[in-house]
Design goal:
Growth Hormone, Chain: A; single chain; mainly alpha; disordered N terminus; two-stranded antiparallel ribbon; 69% helix; 563 residues; 23 helices
Length: 563
């Protein structure tokens, strides 16, 4: 039994029944919950929902409906490049242009460009910064309330955008801001649905992530409709029609979606650990109901995971952890210790620079290529290609992301990101049409890979116990830094005479420098952690094997003990 207890459990990285030993109840366990464990009173928050308590057909419907409303509402603001021409055509912020610019008949003037880009910058920043409050609301009130908050923001955003031209103040920035806030509340609240079918949790997350990336096509569809109706389908009509989306989400939350998150496998395992059959609380034996509940947990786990053998799952989990190279590097540390470490500082710097580059490109793709290609029509052509490629890239990248993150090491994944980012930077300074198309193709694949890789790095390095705080802080800081996009616009227009090449070179060199530091540090630590793990395994082997005992004797003892 001693050897058997050494195995990792496929459902949590530890044997779920180890806690039955007398010392086990006092041992601090690894938690997969972003909220710390404590001993709650009898009356407390509503617990997570058991998956087996919900019918299979209802769970399928929940995942399907969530995918639909994430497609419609998770991130339409990132289709800014598609809706920007509509806003320009409608004369939004045209009053900020100088008389000379109006006489010259420029497509978009300097101040108008800055105001429109500020609208997107505020939306991009708020999307990232609100990751922290979304997590708080989700943890405290559950996914239904969090989604309803998103419904309220989406409704406000739609109304502001619909009536912005008639308001006595600027309604476009708050309208786009509220649309941006609503997306994360709806999208992040849907993540817990991956627990509806744990065997396919990765596929469900990929489906939801793909829906988020594809949601940028909403504004592309509107722009095509706007152009197809000879500009008669105005933004007011579109955003009033868009109010159907928050109504749809509201009805889904009331009549279909769970009020509380579904239980994870780790929570089921924790339930087994905390309620051993012979345990007592303050001298009182467990009730028959509690014993029956505990006995049902094993069958529930089996039903969720399917018939796949536990030993095979253990091997798969061990392989994934070992393959990462950095798995568990900062597990067990406090959030403060993690934030003060180079692991956090370097990934934050990398995320800050890359997110700024991504959002700056989305906001300025047409104006950049109008200057690079010395043709307004060529810039429009690249912009229209980008509008189609951005949502498609999010879908196409899903299998690539799975291959990279599941079958390669973390240092390799980061090196791939740095390589792709460098390639994008190089294409961004070449004034040729082929380079423009190549740049867009690489960019739309890189964007979802980058976002997913950063969250994967955070989960593997820092662990789930502090994931919400640490990852949320990374994204929050990166989002706030996006306000410097206005400075990049000013540099491009005023200092460099609308030439985007100098700013692109600055971003390229900065990203490459930070990327090399990050990859070098992580690769070195991966090597060190691998050596330490080998030494620990050798030490464990010496402790398990009794002195003067050969392998046959140990195997015989093992078989006798487990017979």
């Amino acid at each position: 039994m001693a050897l058997k207890d050494q195995r990792r459990s496929s459902t949590g990285g530890f044997d779920p029944w180890r806690g039955q030993s007398p010392a086990g109840s006092e041992r601090r366990r690894l938690s997969f919950n972003p909220v710390a464990q404590w001993d709650p009173p009898v009356t407390h928050e509503e617990p997570p929902v058991g998956v087996v308590e919900t019918s299979k057909s209802k769970r399928i419907a929940q995942v399907a409906v969530a995918a639909i409303y994430c497609l419609l509402a998770a991130g339409p603001v990132f289709g800014y490049a598609a809706i920007k021409p509509v806003l320009v055509q409608e004369g939004v912020y045209r009053g900020t242009c100088t008389k000379q610019e109006l006489r010259d008949g420029v497509w978009v003037c300097y101040e108008q460009e800055l105001r429109l880009n500020l609208m997107f910058t505020v939306a991009a920043v708020s999307t990232n910064v609100c990751a922290l409050p979304v997590g708080t609301v989700l943890d405290r009130f559950g996914p239904r309330i969090a989604s309803l908050v998103g419904v309220a923001f989406l409704t406000l955003g739609s109304l502001f955008m619909a009536f912005a031209a008639e308001l006595p103040f600027d309604g476009y920035i708050p309208g786009y801001f509220f649309l941006a806030l609503g997306g994360p509340f709806v999208f992040i609240s849907s993540f817990q649905l991956s627990n509806t079918f744990p065997k396919y949790s990765g596929s469900i997350l990929a489906l939801l992530t793909g829906a988020f990336d594809t949601s940028s096509a909403i504004f592309l569809g509107y722009r095509l409709l706007y152009q197809g109706t000879n500009c008669s389908f105005t933004p007011k009509k579109f955003f009033l029609c868009y109010l159907v989306v928050p109504v749809f989400i509201l009805l889904a939350q009331i009549f279909l979606m769970p009020a509380q998150s579904y239980k994870t496998i780790s929570e089921l395992v924790a339930q087994v650990e905390e309620e051993p059959p012979s345990a007592t609380i303050n001298g009182d034996h467990r009730t028959p109901g509690r014993r029956r509940g505990r006995e049902s947990v094993t069958s529930e786990i089996t039903a969720l995971l399917g018939p796949k053998k536990a030993d095979k799952r253990v091997a798969v989990e061990d392989k994934r952890a070992n393959q990462s190279g950095v798995y568990g590097a900062m597990h067990g540390k406090t959030a403060l210790q993690q934030v003060l470490s180079p692991w956090f500082v370097l990934i934050t710097l990398f995320t800050v620079v890359q997110m700024l580059r991504i959002n700056y490109f989305v906001a300025t793709v047409r104006t950049q290529y109008t200057e690079l290609l010395h043709s307004h029509s060529a810039g429009v052509q690249v912009n229209e290609f980008f509008d189609v490629a951005l949502p498609l890239g999010g879908v196409i990248a899903v299998p690539l992301i799975g291959i990279v993150l599941d079958h390669t090491s973390t240092p390799f994944a980061l090196a791939l990101l740095v390589g792709l980012a460098t390639l994008i930077g190089a294409f961004g300074v070449i004034g040729e049409m082929w380079a423009a198309y190549a740049n867009v193709c690489v960019f739309v694949i890189y964007r979802p890979l980058y976002y997913t890789a950063v969250s994967d790095y955070s989960a593997k390095v820092f662990g789930f116990a502090t994931f919400g705080k640490v990852y949320g802080l990374v994204i929050c800081l990166a989002g706030l830094f996006n306000f410097t996009q206005a400075a990049l616009d000013t540099l491009t227009h005023r200092t460099f005479g609308n030439d985007p090449v100098p700013v692109n070179i600055i971003l390229l060199v900065t990203a490459l420098f930070v990327g090399i530091l990050l990859v070098g540090f992580v690769w070195r630590k991966s090597y060190t952690l691998s050596r330490e793990k080998l030494e620990e395994e050798a030490e464990d082997a010496r402790e398990v094997l009794m002195p003067d005992a050969d392998e046959d004797a140990v195997e015989g003892t093992h078989h006798n003990g487990t017979a």
